[in-house]
Amino acid sequence: MECKRLLLVAALTLASVPALGRDAVPPGQVPAPQSAADVPKPVAGAPVSKEYAQAIGRMAYIWGWPLVNMHNRQTLFATAPHPGLLGGVLPVAPLNHVSMLSDYLAPEQRFITSPNQDVVYGAGFLELDKEPVVIQVPDFGDRFWVYQIVDQRSDSFAEVGIQYDTEPGMYLLVGPDWEGKKPKGINAVFRSQTNLGAVFPRIFMDDTAEDREAIQPLIDQVSAYPLSEYTGEMKTVDWSESPTIPNPNEGGDGETQWVVPEEFFTLLPEVMEETPPLPGEEALYASIKFVLEAAQDNPELQQALQEVAVATEQDVIQPMFEFRNNGVDAGNGWRTQKNAARFGFGYFQRTATAKGNMFSNVPEETMYFGADFDSAGERLHGKEKYTVTFPAGELPPVDGFWSLTLYNKQHFFYPNELDRYSLGTKNKSLVKNDDGSLTLYVQNKNPGGAKEANWLPAPKDDFSLYIRAYWPQEAIPNGTWVPPTIEQVD
Q1: Which InterPro entries does the record associate with it (predicted)?
Q2: Is the pLDDT reported for residue 40 higher than 90?
Q3: Does residue 360 lie in a domain region?
Q4: Which residue range forms the structural domain that includes residue 474?
Q5: Angstrom distance (rounded) from CA 425 to CA 231
Q6: 3-class DSSP state for residue 115?
Q7: Does some domain include residue 207?
Q8: With 70 as the cut, is the pLDDT of residue 26 above it?
């Protein structure tokens, strides 16, 4: 009875205390912010020292480098008058369209480092705030294919490919603010977190005349166009007749310079406006915008930011180009990526990938392994001879295809007498050893005889090797399969 009386008194006492609403706070306490929007922002007009501007600017350069890179690539595509081949070698199209090759990518191109010679590529950049974009998927049958579809952060936002059991037909790409309904005849809708994005179809092709002929009707049905041009009918284009479009960036040994340090902070405000912060990035955006606003009418701060951009490019970005500085250890001197095309807050990985091998697929689509050194830790160099031997039964376990590609020191194909830049599934004349193993010969001079079929020609100076495993089986991502050693031989 006494217990019940005490409970009643307690209940009456609590009832007499005003309830604390969501915004009510006991005296002497500061309310916790309810969202990022409630957090106080830096005060405009506060003094900003050169040193502080450069400290924030250094991080802004590392973080924003791949976003500015994407912005400038889109700017190039926006100048295309129609789909065609930039400089006669690179597929380029007006925004919200794609262009396709009809063969492997030519070694002369300088649009993108670390490409492959296993697929027929396509390319197109998106401007989804204008209108949604329809992409066509032909019936590829059992042939490996995948469309890489990324936002401005080069994060994938659509699963379109053979590994996803994607049905032939039409698909719609929309921006973050689109509120329409799925049109009749559209199989699915994929939403990007940014209005700027890109589409890169990849369709596997054997290195034979027969397969080059067989693939043409399929790639001619690969297309993308604004929703306003959608009729429900499959459009076709004879991509083998693509016209040449003059390339304003022709020349040079390395990749087109998509990020110019001296212009970076002039472009960054526009890029930040077109790339809304991810949840959790609000503080980073506020810190960077505070410095950018302070520098608007301050020549000294503008000069300080330009100086730090140049220094960061040299000290931080340039070293990211080497494969050894990207990804994680995969064994036997190889490096691999675990979060390609889903970088999130992995700013280092995103920027390193954008510098050395931009537009890498997500791991379910492709795993990549790069090497700059041999098994003894020596830099790969054309004055030496190497072998890469896959033991019997230990070729890369894939459901798609695999290849070993050789790049020169600029991460491009090395022109050679055989026009051969990679070896793998596409090659039908590879010769296995008596025990079932496969040895590939990596050297400058032709080894001659039966070895020529397995020869990967190398330049006379530094080079790198790259293994691709498209549609990898579980042994690759879980680390059970380890890439072979790169052995220096006499």
Answers
A1: DUF1214, DUF1214_C_sf, DUF1254, DUF1254_sf
A2: no
A3: yes
A4: 327-489
A5: 38
A6: coil
A7: yes
A8: no
Check if the beta carbon of residue 98 is closer than 8 Å to that of residue 83. Answer: yes
C-alpha span between 415 and 421 (Å, rounded): 8
Distance, in Å, from the CA atom of 234 to the CA atom of 238, rounded to the nearest integer, reads 13
Q: Give the model confidence (pLDDT) of 268-277 as tens digits.
A: 999 999 999 9
Neighbours of 382 (CB within 10 A): 19
Domain boundary among 228, 245, 262: 245
Residue 324 near residue 372 (C-beta atoms within 8 A): yes
CA atoms within 13 A on the CB side of 67: 25
Residue 112 has pLDDT above 70, yes or no: yes
Q: Is 377 exposed, middle or buried (0-12, 13-18, 19+ CB in 10 A)?
A: exposed
The domain total for the chain is: 2
Q: Say yes or no: 239 and 365 in one domain.
A: no
Residue 286 lies in a domain: no
Residues 6+ apart with CB under 8 A from 17: none
**Which residues, 6 or more positions from 22, have their beta carbon under 8 angstroms from its beta carbon?**
34
Q: Which of 245, 279, 294 is the last residue of a domain?
A: 245
The beta-strand segments (E) located in 260-418 are: 328-331, 334-336, 366-371, 385-390, 398-408
Is residue 37 included in any domain, yes or no? no
Residues 92 and 206 in one domain: yes
Calpha distance 198→288 (Å, rounded): 26
